[in-house]
Amino acid sequence: MLTRETILEKAEALFMAQGIQGTSIADVATAAGISKGTLFYHFRSKDELILEIAFANIQRVSDEMLSFIAREEEPLNPRRLAERFIRQVLAATLRNRLHLYLIEESMARNEKLKAALRDKYREWLATMLGALKPFLGEKASILAPILLALTDGLIIQTTLGLDMPPIDEMLKALIPDA
């Protein structure tokens, strides 16, 4: 396995086991069997490492949703698509923890992280719009940002352990039958 891939794999495992704050660059280097200098050759900072893992997870969700849309043989059911998207995002627990960490860090202290997240959100929103527009027309420009906002809110609420109504019930209220 290539060193960069090993670093990402070991860092992701450590973040899951110890949390982001509880994992140091030295921990990642040791787990990957490399020196800190080698790690810094591949990633300039812990934030850069976290961003790459988080963005890879976002890309996996995007790819799965685009694949789901492409496989649809019947007219796209917006509620079913939204439910699948939300369930998939909520199932990605590491991505969700990284996401919350990045949001908190970028809002509180790190303008560079904030810019990177803003760019990734714009990219993700454009991807969602492009995928939904052929099926939903102009409604896609309304539904895509709502789905993104709903998903972020649900990530926060599930991370806090709040009881939520079933996703399908929330979506019935949000997206009426066609």
Can you describe what's shown?
- The mean pLDDT is 83.
- The termini are far apart.
- This protein has helices at 3-18, 25-32, 36-42, 46-71, 78-91, 93-108, 111-136, 140-160, 167-174.
- It has 9 helices and no strands.
- The chain is elongated.
- The chain is mainly alpha-helical and 178 residues long.
- It folds into 2 domains: 1-44, Arc Repressor Mutant, subunit A (Orthogonal Bundle), CATH 1.10.10.60; 45-174, Tetracycline Repressor, domain 2 (Orthogonal Bundle).
- The relative contact order is 0.11.
Per CATH, what is the topology of the largest domain?
Tetracycline Repressor, domain 2
Shape: elongated
CATH architecture of the largest domain: Orthogonal Bundle
- Assign the CATH class of the largest domain: Mainly Alpha
- Please provide the count of β strands: 0
Spans where pLDDT lies below 50 across 5 or more residues: none
**What oligomeric state do the depicted chains represent?**
single chain
* Tally of separate domains: 2
Cα-atom radius of gyration:
18 Å
Helix content: over 70%
Q: Strand portion, in percent? A: under 5%
Q: What's the order of the H and E elements?
A: HHHHHHHHH
The CA-CA distance between the termini, in Å, is: 49 Å
How would a crystallographer describe the biggest sheet? none
Q: Can you tell me the CATH superfamily of the largest domain?
A: Tetracycline Repressor, domain 2
Tally of alpha and pi helices: 9
Based on secondary structure, the structural category is mainly alpha
Mean pLDDT: 83
